[in-house]
Design goal:
This protein has about 220 residues and is of the alpha/beta class. It folds into 2 domains: about 140 residues, Rossmann fold, CATH 3.40.50.1000; about 60 residues, Orthogonal Bundle (DNA polymerase, domain 1). It has 9 helices and 6 strands. It has a 6-stranded parallel beta sheet, with helices on one face. Strand 2, helix 6 and strand 3 form a beta-alpha-beta unit. Helix 1 crosses helix 4 and helix 3 crosses helix 4. The longest helix has 19 residues. It is globular.
Length: about 220
């Protein structure tokens, strides 16, 4: 088997969390006087770091206030989601298949570490991910390729030997710009919207490592 690595986004890939982020974001924005539309959510927020999207919506803010807004929104999200969180269908079986085939992987997410720890704990997936890059590892969020270039480097792989799994359009752009193969998962966008990828999946139930090897 060809040696390759897999770079997982988190929200919308490991967990189908965006419906709950949507509730939290709309509540948060409403509390702060902003009426968030579905279009703004999809185009300006999904896949981006808090420090990117918050000034996009609210204008220039002091960095301390951006950080405060970000953690306020994430705490709201975790409280809303904690009773419903579960891994995307087929994910655990897929991760076990990666273990059997010794395929390295990393998480590369725009989310803060508090959400990563929450996600891994409540889905029981801590043991599958030794390499984790969260929003603190990058200065430029998706669609900039920085996080995927750094994740590939952290695993000791060239970007062209990595496969990114993404649900957001900005994440797909980031993976492509990094030079990686990109698998789109239709938790957030339709298959038609994810046509600019190497493979589109609905979940992990039928995905095999051999399917990914064929992308090279």
């Amino acid at each position: 088997m060809k040696k390759f690595a897999i770079l997982f986004d988190m929200d919308g890939v490991i967990i189908d969390s965006n419906p709950f982020h949507k509730i939290a974001l709309k509540q948060f924005c409403q509390q702060h006087g902003y009426d968030l539309t579905d279009e703004a959510l999809r185009l300006k927020i999904y896949g981006r770091t808090n420090k990117d999207w918050i000034p996009n919506l609210f204008g220039a803010l002091a960095p301390q206030l951006v950080a405060q807004y970000g953690e306020e929104k994430e705490a709201m999200f975790r409280e809303i989601y904690k009773h419903d969180i579960k891994p995307v269908d087929g994910l655990i079986e897929f991760l076990n298949a990666l273990d059997r085939n010794s395929i390295p992987r990393a998480i590369a997410t725009s989310a803060p570490r508090s959400n990563v720890d929450f996600t891994l704990k409540y889905t029981g997936t801590e043991r599958y991910f030794e390499t984790i890059l969260d929003e603190a590892f990058v200065t430029r969020g998706k669609p900039d390729p920085e996080i995927y270039l750094k994740a590939a480097q952290a695993l000791g792989f060239k970007p062209e030997d990595c496969i990114v799994i993404e649900d957001s359009l900005s994440g797909v752009q980031a993976g492509k710009a990094a030079g990686c193969k990109v698998v789109g998962i239709t938790t957030t966008h339709t298959a038609e919207e994810l046509l600019n990828t190497n493979l589109v999946i609905a979940d992990f139930k039928t995905l095999k490592p051999s399917d990914l090897e064929r992308l090279f």
